[in-house]
């Protein structure tokens, strides 16, 4: 656990309650606490537990996406509306995960759901295999909000980043892909290097993350440090002539919810241009999450290619690669890059949801984004305060950088040392620097017992959340923090 009731460091703001923050604490073993939480959770959610046992008979680990399969079992959902989901045991769970951060208007927003229901009732909505004018209008809208000249749609973020990599390698005729440690671009060969922190390795973010991949792919990936412009310069000085593209998230998601700095973004743009490599922004999380379009609208650095998914899908499986016409041309007839196939790509219902969502966000931009960034900041403060009251030092990320003014996303970290800035995955994902098990596992289970669902300690605010929901989150964190504090 991070910090306990003892001496408080000078200079820190005074905290509510009697507790005071103490000196740095060492890494803790949470297995006894996790076992108690799991037993309580089994009593709390017997139907979800029973369904999970059945699910294990046919589904690997009881489901189809590891992150959804929290231990000892996930809540099995029966309905989802706005800020809440309902599970098989009848709990109304306040959800900050929100469709893996896709649901910016909350679950099943009527603005999209009603349009889809009408379409399905009037002979339109399921797969046709043909193309239509909606696809054209969706592409037009996406380009107008992102500065891209051409777009091609696909069905998942992983496919989008994979195709972007094909395009960059095809366009430049080079083999090597550069990414940042802790960056997640989905389960595709070049993205599956340097995602997880490996404390035992000297290069903690350089390993290939999956069996079954050709080893040669790992040799074609260079991992650099997020927000480290000097290291980027060194990497380009050494390897520049063989780098096809530098792909990274302008707002790092699974690496800890960290916004890129202006210096890093400018260096990335200058160095890729100077060395003939393409700059690829993975905007699967950030697209339409911080403004009604590309995050680049906030700081004016235009990539050569960008990938989109999540929010712009409107709750349906949609992803896109968008960018320069001369690069995207390679995906077309005679271009030589096989950005093709995809029975369900541009699915009519997906295009309708995507168009409807993007159109809504453009129309409501002035009200949606300030509202959700304000809620997220209130959530950060509520969480930090709840832990501080129990003498536990919690630090939320997702706040602004000099390039990205505000964000509706927040993750909580528990650094052992109060002075740790928690601004790089080398800190937030390193169990010797932050109590990763506490933020990733203990807190999630402790809050689930309070009927609150978080991912990476918190998640994303949506327009469906209210100030009362944030207050509820704060109270739930207070009880979870008490439980954690008492357990050690
Ligand atoms: C930044 C980023 N890129 C790519 C992906 C992969 O997208 P998908 O899960 O739709 O394949 C994700 C998924 O979380 C992501 O966060």
Nutshell version of this structure?
With 488 residues, this protein is an alpha/beta fold.
Give structural notes:
With 488 residues, the protein is α/β, with parallel strands linked by helices. The protein is 38% helix and 13% strand. It is built from 16 helices and 16 strands. The protein has helices spanning 31-44, 46-55, 98-101, 110-120, 133-146, 157-172, 215-219, 229-239, 262-274, 296-299, 325-328, 348-363, 365-389, 425-428, 436-448, 467-486, and strands at 77-81, 84-87, 92-95, 150-154, 176-180, 221-224, 243-248, 251-252, 258-259, 278-283, 305-308, 319-323, 395-397, 409-413, 452-453, 459-460. A seven-stranded mixed beta sheet has the order 4-12-11-10-7-5-6, with helices on both faces. It is globular, with a radius of gyration of 22 Å.
Query: What is the distance, rounded to the nearest whole angstrom, between the alpha carbons of the first and last residues?
Result: 8 Å
Output the number of helix runs.
16
User: Which distinct ligands sit in these coordinates?
Assistant: pyridoxal-5'-phosphate
Shape: globular
**Helix content class:** 25-40%
Strand order of the largest sheet: 4-12-11-10-7-5-6
Strand element count: 16
Task: Characterize the largest beta sheet: strand count, sense, and whether it forms a barrel.
Answer: 7 strands, mixed
> Whole-number average pLDDT?
93
Structural class: alpha/beta
- Gyration radius, to the nearest Å? 22 Å
Low-confidence stretches: 1-20
Beta-strand percentage?
5-15%
